Amino acid sequence: MKDIIKLHDKKFKIMIPAEKIDEAVTAVADRINADYAGCPTPLFVGVLNGSFMFMSDLIKKIDFNNELSFVKLASYEGTSSTGEVKSLIGLNGSIEGRHVIVVEDIVDTGESIEHMMRDLQARRPASVEVCTLFFKPGSYRKQVPIKYRAMEIGNEFIVGYGLDYDQLGRSLKDIYVVTE
Ligand SMILES: O=P(O)(O)OC[C@H]1O[C@H](OP(=O)(O)OP(=O)(O)O)[C@H](O)[C@@H]1O
Ligand SMILES: Nc1nc2[nH]cnc2c(=O)[nH]1
User: Fold this and answer.
1) Which residue range or ranges hold the Phosphoribosyltransferase domain (predicted)?
2) Per-residue b or e along 80-97, where b marks 16 or more CB atoms closer than 10 Å to that residue's CB
3) 108 lies in which domain range?
4) Which end of the chain has fewer CB atoms < 10 Å from its terminal CB, N or C?
């Protein structure tokens, strides 16, 4: 593992090694296994692009029968005064009556997860919970409960393990933080 890396114009230093990430993923998977034992086939919904690596590692540690799907939040400029509009694409089948676990790489301001939850709740699932690898309590501005938080971090910008800086860095297996 390199201590310092450069992506585009910025330097990043190592913050969380892969082994620590694995421990946090195991701990959150253990909680989900306990909470959903006996629940009829829960559905994991990963939010692309960032969640692909977390989902891959998390799902291997889940010990009940499950289904898995990925969605994307598409942004476009709306014609209404609210400006940016985000809509969820990729979820084709019905989730009515299903137990859904949304899998995110990071919840920062909460803007994305709020859009996601509003759309999912409208589809009348039996339950929806959020499982995020990283949560930034100092940045979060929304009311959506984030039940499963593998790790909490400060307001710093991180990359690696699915998270990008202008599309670079997603393939790194450790987490790096931007340096000043
Ligand atoms: O809580 P927020 O402030 O909304 O930030 C969190 C969101 O930002 C990232 O997605 P991004 O839009 O960068 O897309 P990506 O996953 O394709 O990188 C991340 O995957 C979350 O979805
Ligand atoms: N890569 C990356 N994407 C984010 N989206 C919201 N917060 C972050 C962050 O800290 N890093």
Assistant:
1) 21-165
2) eeeeeebebeebeeebee
3) 4-178
4) C
Q: Is 159 in the pocket of ligand 1 (CB under 6 A)?
A: no
Q: Is the predicted pLDDT of residue 76 greater than 80, yes or no?
A: no
pTM for the whole structure: 0.96
Q: Whose CA is nearest to atom 21 of ligand 1?
A: 106
Q: What is the pLDDT of residue 83?
A: 54
Q: What's the structural domain count of the chain?
A: 1
pLDDT, averaged across the chain: 94
Tell me, what amino acid is at 126?
Answer: A
Which residues are designated catalytic?
Answer: 108
49 lines ligand 1 (CB under 6 A): yes
Q: Read off the amino acid at residue 142.
A: K
- CATH code for position 20: 3.40.50.2020
- At residue 99, the 3 state secondary structure works out as strand
Give the distance (Å) from ligand 2 centre to CA of residue 158: 6
Measure the CA–CA gap between 159 and 18, rounded to whole angstroms. Answer: 13
